[in-house]
Design a protein that fits this description.
Layout (H helix, E strand, L loop, with lengths): L12 E4 L20 E3 L19 E3 L2 H7 L2 E2 L5 H14 L10 H12 E2 L2 E2 L2 E4 L8 E4 L2 E6 L2 E6 L2 E5 L7 E4 L3 H8 L8 H4 L3
Parallel strand pairs: 2-4
Antiparallel strand pairs: 1-2, 1-3, 5-6, 7-12, 8-9, 8-12, 9-10, 10-11
Helix pairs in contact: 2-4
């Protein structure tokens, strides 16, 4: 979990990591640049052919929680207000001491160290009871997300209720550490609509 996979499920957000495909629309790499962004599905009436030659590879995410777990951040163009909110929260939560406002390339550099290494998804061990709303983790290759005071099982199609009983105290966290700190400081990532209908 955490790397690019194929699914027929419909995402609610689009992602961009640069040109990842070849002329046969086959994924050849996990990323091309350090700016991994999350975009709206519709913006200013723009139309694109998926995986067009030389164009960036369109990735899709179930929701914002999933996109953050993959290491993406909001786009500064089509999601400007959300980008600003995340940037300011990230800067405060991570005690940014550089420029007065952290710039996207500076955030991207930190996020990149936390999300992928040698072609593999970076995870870290965290205490389940300490994970904030929106953090994702895995147990035996199954994905889960913390939603308020409960745990939901993740799939490409949406979430389902899961029991915290039987899950280990320490878990393999998918969401990058600086992003988890941002969530813990009060930034609220958005869940897929079906999460609201559970429980």
């Amino acid at each position: 979990m955490g790397l690019i996979e194929s699914s027929k499920a419909r995402g609610t957000l689009m992602g961009n990591r640069g040109v990842l495909h070849n002329s046969k629309k086959e994924i050849r790499r996990q990323f091309k640049n350090l700016a991994w962004i999350t975009c709206l599905l519709e913006f200013k009436g723009r139309k694109r052919e998926l995986m067009s030659p030389g164009g960036y590879t369109e990735l899709f995410f179930l929701d914002e929680v999933t996109a953050f777990a993959a290491g993406h951040r909001p786009c500064a163009e089509c999601r400007r207000a959300r980008y600003n909110e995340f940037r300011d929260a990230w800067s405060t939560a991570n005690n940014w001491s550089g420029t007065s406002k952290v710039r996207a390339p500076e955030m991207d550099k930190v996020l990149h160290q936390e999300r992928i290494e040698n072609g593999q998804k970076v995870t870290w061990i965290g205490k389940l009871a300490d994970l904030p709303h929106g953090a994702m983790f895995q147990v035996d290759s199954e994905g889960y997300a913390v939603c308020e005071d409960r745990v939901l099982a993740w799939s490409f199609e949406g979430y389902r209720e899961a029991s915290i009983e039987g899950l280990p105290e320490m878990v393999d966290v998918l969401t990058p550490q600086s992003v988890v700190k941002t969530f813990a400081a009060g930034f609220r990532p958005e869940f897929h609509y079906n999460a609201r209908n559970l429980g």
